[in-house]
Amino acid sequence: GTIAINISSIQIKHSDIFKSILKELENSKLNPENLEIELTESYIMEDIEESLTILENLKNLGIKLAIDDFGTGYSSLNYLKQFPIDKLKIDKSFVKGLPNNKKDIAIARTILALGHGLEVKIIAEGVEKEEQKEFLEKQNCDEIQGFLYSKALKEEDFINFIKKFN
Questions:
Q1: What is the band of 125 on the pLDDT scale with cuts at 50, 70, 90?
Q2: Contact at 8 Å (CB) between 12 and 74?
Q3: Which among 86, 19, 92, 85 has a CA at the least distance from the CA of 51?
Q4: Angle, alpha carbons 36-34-141 (nearest 5°)
Q5: Each residue of 25-39: b (16+ CB within 10 Å) or e?
Q6: Cα–Cα distance for residue pair 12/27, rounded to 1 Å
Q7: Which one, of 80, 75, 39, 43, lies nearest residue 58 by Cα?
Q8: Separation CA 159–CA 68 (nearest Å)
Q9: Which pLDDT score, from 0 to 100, does residue 48 have?
Q10: 161 pLDDT band (50/70/90 cuts)?
Q11: Is 9's pLDDT higher than 80?
Q12: CA separation for the pair 36, 121 (Å, rounded)
């Protein structure tokens, strides 16, 4: 399976994130192909050149890359096509009104079409209701996450939770 880690802009700015990830991969013996790094759209757009370098270095290791909170920052479609991204995450603010809010429907469908056109997977964040899940599945959303499946868990509870799936 894949382990997804959300990296904050503060963590990136105050450390050599590439070296830190290499060190943790070595310590954990985790295959880089089983690691997914999530970076927020707003961070990526802060310094395009630096972001592109970091993303390309991580991608060259085999790590999967996702843009978190997509649609809430100031992304340029021109830059989006240059980044070596594997996944886009539809921000929960656009999922909240599904399946009834016309604007949320339009935004979710647009992000899904854009992502699939760029050949990246789409994850919907913040899914709390069965009708949201059903709508997103009908729209061919690749992955769904949110309180519908589980709230945030402490380490011990998380370990017990994933044991159910093995």
A1: very high
A2: no
A3: 85
A4: 55
A5: beeeeeeeeebbbbb
A6: 20
A7: 39
A8: 24
A9: 82
A10: confident
A11: no
A12: 12
What token pair was written down for 20? Answer: 């830190």
C-beta separation of 71 from 111 below 8 A: yes
What pLDDT digit, counting tens, does each position of 30-82 carry? Answer: 999 999 999 888 778 788 888 888 889 999 999 999 998 888 876 678 778 88
Q: Annotate 94-110 with DSSP letters as a single string.
A: HHTTTTT-HHHHHHHHH
Pull the structure tokens for residue 80.
Answer: 């989006």
Q: At what angle do helices 102-117 and 130-138 cross, to 10 degrees?
A: 40
Query: Is 82 within 8 Å of 62 (Cβ atoms)?
Result: no
Listed residue (42, 35, 1) closest to 20, CA to CA: 35
User: Within a 13 Å sphere around the CA of 67, how many CA atoms are in the beta-carbon half?
Assistant: 28
- Residue 87's DSSP bridge partners are 66, 121
> Can you read off the two tokens belonging to residue 52?
């592109």
Instruction: Give the other-Cβ count within 10 Å of 103's Cβ.
Output: 9
Q: Are 136 and 97 in contact (CB under 8 A)?
A: no
